[in-house]
Amino acid sequence: MQTFDFNRSYFRFCIDQQAQTPITLSHDMPTTVLSVRINIESRCVVTHRPTGKSRTYVLGASCKTERVGAARDCWLEPNADFCLIASEQEFLILKSFATNDVRVMSHPASQGVQPQRQSGACREAWCDFATQLRPARGQDLGSIEAIVAAIRGDRPICAQTQYDDGDYHVAIDYPIKTINYSERERVYQVDTGPIPLPDLSTQRLNAVERQVDCFDLAFVAFNSPAWAEAIVNVPTPAGNGVSVNHYSRTRRIEPARNALVEVVEGAAPPHPHISHTRHVQTDGAAERLVP
Asked: What is the pTM of this model?
């Protein structure tokens, strides 16, 4: 069956200040153009079941806010954890400071205070952007014996969790970074993340402008193919009126369909890289798809 080589899957984007005014910066870049490659942590496909329309989102690896190309003082202060969830059309940047009351101005300052959850259209944020998910062949681990044998080996293991949420079907693919097992009791348990977890409840959908705003970061645990439990990163009281972002809200997903897949080394991918890139023309022409 098909899975993904997440170690060789990337999200790429480019900020070119000579082509368009940046909307995601909180500092004056030392360079006029900046290109970025970020490993993809996981993939989420959301399908609207009544229409059959799907949208694919990817979660990029976390990093820290920085000045790229500076001679010194590379780290921005106050510093934030930074990660990105994006589809071909829209993005969500998640910044997490020491506490949630930190306020940082955007650059240019005329854009106001930068939100810690900033969403928008990809074409307005970056002049070029691409999602590259590298397919890989996998072997379905359909028994406890196969799962334990794979864990004791050294090949990568991936998982897919599928479930329905109202009118939507959700399928999340992600690498297994931590997994536990007991051969004696014939038990295994996934404990891994982060993954992009959508909240597609009517209340959440009605409260946001874009579907990407429905996503939160989560870790996932399961020891059965029929259910999963997530612990979600949300603003969490820390005392004295202080709030921090922390994995503190649990969510049971049941029924679910979980599959564990061992990546088969040396096998050619079933088809080339999946790659989508858009480019914003600087002469005012309509955006075009760049292969």
From this structure: 0.91
